[in-house]
Amino acid sequence: MGTTLFDKVWNTHVITGEIGEPQLLYVDLHLIHEVTSPQPFEGLREAHRKLRRPDLTIATMDHNVPTKDIYNVKDQMSRLQMDALEKNCRDFDLPLASVGDDKQGIVHVVGPERGATQPAKVIVCGDSHTATHGAFGAIAFGIGTSEVEHVMATQTIWQVKPKTMGIKITGKLPKNTYSKDIIMAIIAKYGVSFGTGYAIEFYGETIEQLSMEARMTMCNMCIEAGSKTGMVKPDQTTYDYVAGREMAPKDMAAAEEYWSQFYTDDEADFDERIEFDVTDLKPMITWGTNPGMAMAVDQKTPAIQDKNDQAAYDYIGLTPGTKAEDIPLDYLFIGSCTNSRYEDLVEAAAMMKGKHLAPNITAWIVPGSREIRNRAMASGIAKVFEDAGCEWREPGCSACLAMNPDKIPAGKHAASTSNRNFVGRQGAGSRTHLASPAMVAAAGIAGHFVDVTAM
Ligand SMILES: CC(C)[C@H](C(=O)O)[C@@H](O)C(=O)O
Ligand code: SF4
């Protein structure tokens, strides 16, 4: 009987406790942002406790940051949360990547970028998209506010071990389809809760060919399938990504030797297995109000099967039988921890190079971090967007979640590279259609969705 990747990482972190009951795990990396940290810091303060391992904690500002006029925070709640993080980092001796800082960006973008996200670690954050970091072969999951305080005080966390699910991906990705399409197609097929209670591992030839950025996109959306943890076995692609980054191990050879033990043994049994072939994959878009309400770009919006479908259609302002190209679009948003990395911007820019946005479209391009922003400006990618008529913004969560000035107006449709199309997600009454960066960019040029595989 072999052992899964998940179990191997888990076993190296258990301090105490039996399987089936909560077990105490050591935490190697704790990521913090301004939304879910004020209360835990207050708890520490009241208990006269220190932050146990500032050296294993990374703090950045992301959700509330205005992406146009970064120091001009008008919203009262945003101001409070941001000021609290500034003060807490000062009081608890924690470096902060604050607004304007070189290291600032979306928490799930900066962890990997700084080399803090590494294979075989346990990584937590008070944020549901923490699974992103699992792309490196780490166990990474979102935690609640009281758990954040526990990690701050003890650098440990109580967890009941989830079951494991292996998702084997086979086949060659068709031209201009991406890992975003794979994960969206899987969620469309199996629903938004098939992963509940499971730690997912993606594996197979298709996964091995993917870049780290593409693997992160897939793990990022595991929570949209109900799973708190998504993982990919670390390999040479992973090591090469980590090497040379600010927080990468000094002795990479030793690190690689250690990391290379973390893979699922051939004889290991997942509790559940899924196989998914991408040979005929089409670009995916969502038509409704959860990520499972999705269709391939060459399909029509589906028939109404239950009252959830009816409610989704009512909210989104569409009817069954609508072609993708007939979905009206007003805005496009390229950004979020799902798809705001440099590679995502390159894919989007390829669709816009030398072209101009359709007159009906307002476009916001929001790099996930300042480092990405700088790189895109140096390479000319930013200029492609600007020449096309897009607004090139400063890093933050932006229109992924309407906690800052980037809000899609009520009734307007947005093609978005983010991960959630919930009611009101991008602003009260906003209508979101999720897709890959290439699809969103191409839609901006055409003024409506088009099949990028035919381009
Ligand atoms: C604000 C934060 C707690 C939230 C999350 O947990 O994911 C946000 O990042 C989101 O994407 O909805
Ligand atoms: S970019 Fe969106 S999904 Fe990611 S952490 Fe920010 S709000 Fe959450």
Explain what the structure shows.
α12 links the parallel β15 and β16. The protein contains 15 helices and 19 strands. The longest helix has 16 residues. The chain has 3 domains: 155 residues, Aconitase, domain 3 (2-Layer Sandwich), CATH 3.30.499.10; 87 residues, Aconitase, Domain 2 (3-Layer(aba) Sandwich); 171 residues, Aconitase, domain 3, CATH 3.30.499.10. It is of the alpha/beta class and 455 residues long. Bound molecules: 3-isopropylmalic acid and iron/sulfur cluster. Iron/sulfur cluster binds next to loops. The site of 3-isopropylmalic acid has 8 residues, from loops. Belongs to the aconitase/IPM isomerase family. LeuC type 1 subfamily. InterPro entries: 3-IsopropMal_deHydase_lsu, Acnase/IPM_dHydase_lsu_aba_1/3, Acoase/IPM_deHydtase_lsu_aba, Aconitase_4Fe-4S_BS, Aconitase_4Fe-4S_dom, IPM_dehydratase_rel_enz, IPMI_cat.
Topology, element by element:
Blueprint: H1 5-11, E1 14-16, E2 23-26, E3 29-32, H2 38-46, E4 57-60, H3 76-91, E5 96-97, H4 107-113, E6 122-125, E7 139-142, H5 145-154, E8 156-159, E9 163-170, H6 179-190, E10 198-203, H7 205-209, H8 212-220, E11 229-232, H9 236-242, H10 252-259, E12 272-277, E13 284-286, E14 294-296, H11 307-316, E15 331-334, H12 342-352, E16 362-365, H13 370-379, H14 381-387, E17 391-392, E18 413-416, E19 431-434, H15 437-446
Helix pairs in contact: 2-5, 6-8, 12-14, 12-15
The protein binds 3-isopropylmalic acid and iron/sulfur cluster.
Domain Aconitase/3-isopropylmalate dehydratase large subunit alpha/beta/alpha: 7-447
Organism: Fructobacillus ficulneus
EC number: 4.2.1.33
